[in-house]
């Protein structure tokens, strides 16, 4: 039988292990992505490209809201991506001030290389896990990603 003091210590220890595991996984994935796509695309710029790939053309305000950054920070990221010819912007409504951002052919080529890197990562994961572990991994990662996406942020939006 455990006491409440022991269970809180265990919970705190497990929480620290989860935090460390998430940090280690993030570092590993970022390092592998950097090797697959050596252009000077930052994490944030890559996230913009991935969001556009997944959701299609979006306005800068919707992009900034979706990624939890200020409009100013998003404008800077989009300016750099436009300079690299990875995205383009066009007016899609009567209000010419609001631009819609979409991925260019060069942006799609960049993301295709990133996708090859993800496929290589998936092969590594397949080799490291049994079929049952793979199914659990997919389910748990989806559950965690969904929880993180809907959870309130513990800190305000800030410029990076």
List the topology elements.
Elements: H1 4-36, H2 43-55, H3 60-67, H4 71-83, E1 87-91, E2 99-103, H5 105-128, H6 131-150
Helix pairs in contact: 1-5, 3-4
Protein name: MarR family transcriptional regulator
InterPro entries: ArsR-like_HTH, HTH_MarR-typ, MarR/SlyA-like, WH-like_DNA-bd_sf, WH_DNA-bd_sf
Domain HTH marR-type: 15-146
Keywords:
single chain, 160 residues, mainly alpha, Arc Repressor Mutant, subunit A, 2 domains, two-stranded antiparallel sheet, 6 helices, 2 strands, 69% helix, globular
Question: What does this entry look like structurally?
Answer:
By secondary structure, the protein is mainly α. The protein has two domains: 1-36; 37-150, Winged helix-like DNA-binding domain superfamily/Winged helix DNA-binding domain (Arc Repressor Mutant, subunit A, Orthogonal Bundle), CATH 1.10.10. The protein is 69% helix and 6% strand. The chain contains six helices and two strands, in the order H-H-H-H-E-E-H-H. It has a two-stranded antiparallel sheet. A hairpin with a 7-residue loop joins strand 1 and strand 2 (99-103). The radius of gyration is 19 Å and the shape is globular. The model has no long low-confidence stretch (mean pLDDT 87).
